[in-house]
Every structure is written in structure tokens, then in C-alpha cells.
């Protein structure tokens, strides 16, 4: 009787340890994508799309988890200055620079997540950005005063040849945009697609392992899902 | 160039999808989650979800519907539908505070639509724009035609006349930081007679933010009228969509054939 009980306890304990142990392993090995939570906007919709595509992800503001992931997504809706302030307060600037610029992890910035890659922004006062890309972020200055701002809705994007996000296919696509500020790139090679709203503006950029889109691929149905798939398939050299 | 948007407007009452006639009569048309799945498959550009529950007693516990019927709150419904929707979702109905806005945005909505709270205190728009960005704030305006031909803003589900002129109010909302205006005609709602074009036109000319027309579509030609005569950036359809198979596809095909640039 005692023997049986002892055995039962032992099995139970091993089982518990296994669960805890497996959880710890899961933690570092099985999630692939880190969605950075810096309190800016709708993160869950990016997560929903990844879930739909069957990818493991984690929404996080912890350095270890960002370092443990093999891809990084920086979404974001809101103001430039606020975003940089939040990243600074969470102390994520250094880890982002290290993972993206030095370790060359594939990185996708969406909307505000693309804008803060620039050197400088002017939304909510002049403010320094992450500086991954050369350029600055300015308010739309349209000659046609009848065009409403913000630029909200579905607009056509013309991809450049050889772009990875668009699968090297220059077919025109339609994506969902919502923004009042836009990125002006100094290096023309960084731009991978343009859209037209009272004049061309940068719709997406690519620079090595850094990808970013002004539009919201997670809200652009089939065309957006394709962009995500292309990003997920990308492996840095 | 920017495409004209076709929006499905879904009204939720006591957890059921309903058709609304003149803001007063409601007819249950079915299941919100199935509707979202279908609209996604049929290529709608945006979905607006309005909770028109007046008593706030949610009853999702129907066993004849094929979805998770343990949802107890509107925000939970939003969280649930956003998992199967890859187009922007606007949530509205009963938003009173910045915390309410945050609740819906974190549940998976991309924008929120605010009506009565903005009429009572415009500060919520100004503060909301500062905190969440103006792109996610839609001011919903219910307009009723007065005997003198002008339109007044109505509140409390289109029942109470605030005495404010719609055009003046729209300008004020834009100044306060609204990102879009969702303009519903109380008279035309559920009439199937088409949008109130003079109303739409007067608001579109007065503001520089996108205007969404709503209320009264009974024929796809009304969509074309709304865009060409009214000049709106987006047209919203409620009732008409519920009773047609592949409704949004037909609507878009019709719009394309009549020279409107849609997705």
C-alpha cells in the first residue's frame, strides 16, 4: 500500500516537473515571432493574422523574449513622439538596435512602426527616431486642399522590381492605409513601393533584413496576407 | 488613387444582428460572427459594428447559432470577430469614456465610433485624439430633417433633438480631432429609398475629413449616387446586405461598372 502511494507521488511529481520544464523550453524555443508591445495601438490584429497563418508569436515588452525570437514585428498606431517616449521608457531602444542592426534579425515595421525607423519625425514636436533608415517623417503637404487628411482607405501600391515583400512581383496591389504623416527617404534604393495620394509617397521600404510598410497588411485581406507570408518566408543571409 | 470604400454596417441588439427601420423597429437577421466571416470572404472594405443595446443585458446564449455563445459583453464580441476579420473594424455604441475607447481598441477594433458622448462633452474627442490618434475616432452623427429644410443632430438613438445644425456640428467635431464622420439619416434609415443626398453634400463640403454615408440603401445605384452626387469617401450599407447572397460582390461589381474606383 505504502509502496503504491509512494510510486503515485513520484509519478505525480515527475509529471509536474515535466510540465514546468516543458513550459520553460517552450518559452525559448517554440515561439518564433516577437510582436513588440510599446502601448501603441492595435497589436492583437497582427497576432490574429499570425495565428491564422499558424505561426507562434508572443506579444511582449521584455528584452529576453525579443532576444529569443527569430523575427521581430513592430506595429503601431499613434504619434511619433509618444512612440519613441514609450520605447525609451521600456528601455527597448538598445535591444532593438542590437537585434536588428547587429544580429540582422528579420524585422517588419508597420505604419508608425515604419515611421519611427527614420532619423527624425515632426508629429507631436520634433523628435529623433530609431535612425535605421535615412530620412524623416513629415505631415502630408498636399497641393489639392480638397483631399481629406488623414489618408484613410484602400489605395494602390506599385511595387518596385526585386522586392521581397511583394515576392518580386510588380503587379499593383491594394492595401489599407490610415495616416497623416509619411516617410521621406533619402536613399531611393530603400523604397520598395510607392502609393499615390496627391503625389507619390513611400508605401513600403526594404533595406537588408529591415522591412516596413506604411499600410496595414494585417487589415488588407488577401494582398496583406501575402505580404506577411513573404516576410515569414524570408531568412536573413 | 484612393479607392472608394464599401462598408458593411452591422447592428447588434441583445447579441443578435438586427435590421433597423427608422431607428425604432428592429428585425433579427441572424448571427454576427457568421456575418463577419461572410463579409470577409466577399471582399467588403470595412466593417462597422454598432451595439444598439439599450438596456445592456446581453444574451448571447442561443443554442441554435453556431458559435461561442458564452460571450457576455460587446467587447468580447469584438475580440471574437476580430480573429476572423482581416479588414478594419469600427466598434461603437455606448462609449462614454477614454477607458471605453481603450477597451474596444485593445479588444481588436481599429476605430471607435462615438455619438452621444461627443454631443455631451466634446472633450472626449480632443483627449481621445491626443491619446489614440485621430485616425481611430469616428464621430457618428444622426441627422433628422426639420420642417425648414435644415438638418438637426439627434441624440439618444435618434429620438431627442439637440437643436444643433448638422453642418456646424460636423465642423466642430473635425476641429476637436475627429478622424471621420459617420453620417446617418434618421428619416431614410431602413427606407430603401437611397441616401439623403442634400444632407450628405452639405456635410462633405463643410469638412475636410472623410465622410461615410449611411441609412437608406435599397438599390446598388444608391451607392453610386452617394459617391457621385454626395461626394463621400465611403458608403455604408446595413439592411440591404443581409438579404442578398454575395451582396458585397454584387455591390462592388455594380459600382465598378458605373465608373467608381473600388477595390
From the helix content, strand content and strand pairing of chain A, which structural class follows? Answer: alpha/beta
Any idea what the shape of chain A is?
elongated
Percent of residues in helices of chain B comes to 25-40%
Distance between the termini of chain A: 61 Å
Radius of gyration of CA atoms of chain B, rounded to a whole number: 17 Å
Shape of chain B: globular
Largest interface: A-B, 36 and 34 residues
Kindly describe this structure.
Chain B: This is imidazole glycerol-phosphate synthase. Chain B: It comes from Candidatus Magasanikbacteria bacterium RIFOXYB1_FULL_40_15. Chain B: Pathway: Amino-acid biosynthesis; L-histidine biosynthesis; L-histidine from 5-phospho-alpha-D-ribose 1-diphosphate: step 5/9. Chain B: Heterodimer of HisH and HisF. Chain B: It is an enzyme of class 4 (lyase). The complex is a heterodimer of chains A (237) and B (263). In chain A, strands 2-1-3-4-13-12-11-8-9 form a nine-stranded mixed sheet. Chain A has seven helices and 13 strands. Chain A has 237 residues and is of the alpha/beta class. Chain A has a single domain, classed as 3-Layer(aba) Sandwich (Rossmann fold). The radius of gyration of chain A is 21 Å and the shape is elongated. By secondary structure, chain B is an alpha/beta fold. Chain B has a single domain, classed as Aldolase class I (TIM Barrel, Alpha-Beta Barrel), CATH 3.20.20. In chain B, strands 1-4-5-6-7-10-11-12 form an eight-stranded parallel β-barrel, surrounded by eight helices. In chain B, β4, α2 and β5 form a beta-alpha-beta unit. Chain B is globular, with a radius of gyration of 17 Å. Chain B starts with a strand and ends in a 6-residue tail after the last helix.
Amino acid at each position: 500500500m505504502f509502496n503504491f502511494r509512494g510510486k503515485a507521488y513520484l509519478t505525480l511529481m515527475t509529471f509536474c516537473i515535466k510540465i514546468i520544464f516543458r513550459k520553460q523550453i517552450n518559452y525559448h524555443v517554440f515561439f518564433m515571432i516577437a510582436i513588440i508591445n510599446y502601448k501603441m495601438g492595435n497589436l492583437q490584429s497582427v497576432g490574429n493574422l499570425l495565428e491564422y497563418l499558424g505561426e507562434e508569436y508572443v506579444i511582449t515588452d521584455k528584452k529576453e523574449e525579443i532576444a529569443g525570437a527569430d523575427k521581430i514585428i513592430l506595429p503601431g498606431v499613434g504619434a511619433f513622439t509618444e512612440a519613441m517616449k514609450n520605447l525609451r521608457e521600456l528601455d527597448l531602444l538598445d535591444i532593438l538596435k542590437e537585434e536588428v542592426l547587429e544580429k540582422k534579425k528579420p524585422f517588419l515595421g508597420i505604419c508608425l512602426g515604419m515611421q519611427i525607423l527614420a532619423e527624425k519625425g515632426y508629429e507631436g514636436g520634433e523628435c529623433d527616431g530609431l535612425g535605421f533608415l535615412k530620412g524623416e517623417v513629415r505631415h502630408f503637404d498636399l497641393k489639392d486642399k480638397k483631399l481629406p487628411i488623414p489618408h484613410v482607405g484602400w489605395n494602390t501600391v506599385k511595387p518596385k522590381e526585386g522586392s521581397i515583400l511583394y515576392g518580386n512581383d510588380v503587379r499593383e496591389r491594394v492595401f489599407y492605409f490610415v495616416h497623416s504623416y509619411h516617410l521621406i527617404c533619402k536613399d531611393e534604393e530603400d523604397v520598395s513601393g510607392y502609393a499615390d495620394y496627391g503625389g507619390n509617397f513611400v508605401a513600403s521600404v526594404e533595406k537588408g533584413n529591415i522591412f516596413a510598410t506604411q499600410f496595414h497588411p494585417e487589415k488588407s485581406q488577401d494582398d496583406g496576407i501575402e505580404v506577411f507570408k513573404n516576410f515569414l518566408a524570408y531568412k536573413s543571409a | 488613387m484612393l479607392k472608394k470604400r464599401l462598408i458593411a454596417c452591422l447592428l447588434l441588439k441583445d447579441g443578435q444582428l438586427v435590421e433597423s427601420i427608422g431607428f425604432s423597429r428592429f428585425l433579427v437577421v441572424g448571427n454576427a460572427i457568421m456575418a463577419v466571416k461572410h463579409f470577409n470572404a466577399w471582399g467588403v472594405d470595412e466593417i462597422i459594428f454598432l451595439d444598439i443595446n439599450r438596456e445592456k443585458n446581453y444574451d448571447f446564449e442561443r443554442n441554435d447559432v453556431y458559435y461561442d455563445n458564452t460571450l457576455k459583453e460587446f467587447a468580447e464580441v469584438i475580440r471574437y470577430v476580430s480573429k476572423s476579420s482581416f479588414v478594419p473594424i469600427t466598434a461603437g455604441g455606448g462609449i462614454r469614456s477614454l477607458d471605453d475607447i481603450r477597451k474596444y481598441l485593445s479588444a481588436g477594433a481599429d476605430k471607435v465610433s462615438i455619438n452621444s458622448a461627443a454631443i455631451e462633452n466634446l472633450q472626449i474627442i480632443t483627449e481621445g485624439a491626443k491619446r489614440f490618434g485621430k485616425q481611430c475616432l469616428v464621430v457618428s452623427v444622426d441627422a433628422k430633417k426639420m420642417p425648414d429644410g435644415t438638418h438637426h443632430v439627434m441624440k439618444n438613438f435618434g429620438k431627442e433633438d439637440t437643436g444643433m445644425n448638422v453642418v456646424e456640428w460636423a465642423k466642430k467635431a473635425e476641429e476637436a480631432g475627429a478622424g471621420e464622420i459617420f453620417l446617418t439619416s434618421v428619416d431614410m434609415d431602413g427606407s430603401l429609398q437611397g441616401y439623403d443626398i442634400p444632407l450628405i453634400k452639405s456635410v462633405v463640403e463643410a469638412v475636410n475629413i472623410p465622410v461615410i454615408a449611411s441609412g437608406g440603401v435599397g438599390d446598388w445605384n444608391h451607392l453610386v449616387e452617394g459617391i457621385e452626387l454626395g461626394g463621400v469617401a465611403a458608403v455604408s450599407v446595413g439592411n440591404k446586405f443581409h438579404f442578398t447572397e454575395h451582396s458585397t460582390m454584387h455591390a462592388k461589381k455594380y459600382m465598378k461598372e458605373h465608373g467608381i474606383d473600388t477595390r
